[in-house]
Structure prediction request, 470 residues.
Amino acid sequence: MAGQSDPHISLFSAEEVEFMAEDELIEIVPNMRMDPLNFICGDFGPFLPQIASQVPLWLAVALKKRGKCAIRPPQWMSVENLTRVLEGERESQGAFQVLPFHYVEISRLLFDHAREDIPDMYMVRSLIEDIRDVRIHKVETSLEKFSGTSAVKIPNLSAMEVNIIRPFVGRALQAFYKHDNPEKIPDVDRASSAQTRAANNEPRRQLRR
Amino acid sequence: MANYFNIDDILAEEEFVPVVFHKAANGVIIDPSSETNSVEQGAKVELPLWLAQDLYLRQAISISVPACFNQRTILGDERITDLNDWLLDTHKPFNALSSEGVLTRLEIQADAACVDLKSRSPYFYEFGCKIAPLGSLKVTSSRIEESKQCRIHALSLSLGCLASRPSKSNWSNKIVSNWVGDKTIEILLLSAFKIRYKEILTKAYTAAYTTASKFLTLLTKEESNLYEAAQVSMSAFKKWRMGGPRLQRASVLGRKRRSFE
Prediction:
């Protein structure tokens, strides 16, 4: 899947990352009766009032907009869990806490469309914002460390965080690679082909008559 | 030649390098102020890299290190003292260009992040990467004799213009080390980039644009590309986080329908 945004700036725009996050499953409690839905990505339903079922996030948001269901916030989105994660992020300088790959996008979609379904909405929201800021800051400090390394490993990064740093890191690593291995500069093959020409004492091409 | 149509690559090759002609060339106007349309043997001129590269491979010229990479500052201790003595010397043997080169290296060693590389060369890294392999070519080519001769020639030239200066025994070493052909350019590029990379990183993600704008003027083209990549992706994320209109109206929809008759 190729991004539609400018390929020179970033592979995906934030909106495209959000689109991908909408495929994550989430639990809803419908308040209507509906037959099962058969999609390419799987079958969902049947939907019965007050019986929870798993659906993709985009479907949950669409149903929620029509007032057909209530969204159950995921397990990790509780105040206790988020407080624990935030403390862990602040304590450990190098490592990142385990959070869902799309936590930034999922939380934003739920805050936009399902405010009343999240208990302690304001608390949860500020916790997630704090976590995100701490993590982005940590990403930057860990980027400061590499200097000419050939491989970089930062586990537990989320999709949005990767997407933010991708253009910068890609270029920076390319530049490090280039300056670390001067013999691998692509210019070399041009120079070496010219070198053979010089060694042969300037062969002059015969003009065709 | 994957970079053939890359505008940055073309512009990087436009940078000037100082060269010395080994052979006289007729019918060329390299220096518009000269009276004749020819270049004498042993003439010192500055040519754009793309031209110098090809002439060099035909062994018509020899290339000196451009002022911005002049190497004589990555040195052992004993030569540092030598350099200081050289800097203090009132009879500076080289022209202003080469003393600028020395200063560039000293500045990079002191604090690479604050050096105004853009004014040295807007394509400092690209240019350096192109200049560096030319030196190794010379070593492999079998015409060391010729290059020796040209060095001696250049030596006599520069000694000639400094007749007033008392000659030193290590003088020839200094001049010979002025030619392209060593690995220090690559070391210089890497060490400069390592330090400046950190500066770009912190400025790009944290500093506001207004505070960073002063810093931006110091960056070479390659570095400002890097900075912009980080800046754009961060601001795109912030914009997404703030929300706003999810759907944009197509520009044609807002227009009034043109009335016919």
Q: What stands out?
A: Chain B touches chain A through 45 residues (CB under 8 Å).
